[in-house]
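Subject: Sanity check before I submit

Could someone independently write out the structure tokens for this chain? I want to compare against mine line by line before I put it in a report. The sequence has 155 residues.
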Amino acid sequence: MSQVETATLETLDILRLLQSLPHRYPFLMVDRIVEANGDESGIGIKNVSVNEPQFQGHFPERPVMPGVLLIEGMAQTAGALCINAHSAGVKPPVVYFMTIDKAKFRKPVTPGDRVEFHMRKTANRKNMWWYKGQAYVDGTLVCEAEIAAMLAPEK
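---
Independent answer below. Compare away.
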């Protein structure tokens, strides 16, 4: 056996995300997770469509994805990574979005874009996880933030 072992990267499709996260349309902000490395890192994918309800009011003449929904996509990606890494075979706990820090919005995201939420764990203590996230469209950084999530048993 080699001293250097490679990590197996996992993919979470929409069905697995629906089992993991409590979010549903129109508030599910991630369609798939690719390259999930346990709770260490992963890339969430969001395909932005003009048919989404936020574009009726934000803005009808020039639809722009609200920045808060980009942050939510990051949080959902991080939450799914945590739940899938720590709840194998057990009903997933509830994941709570706890903090947002250093959020920056670089470029607008519009219908037709494919957003990639690159999430990397920076810390973990007990039932709390901290992640640094970056959102990209076609390789261009559009948003970044540091977030925290907490897993709690469902009551």
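---
OP: Matches mine. For the report I'm noting this point. The first helix runs from residue 14 to 20.
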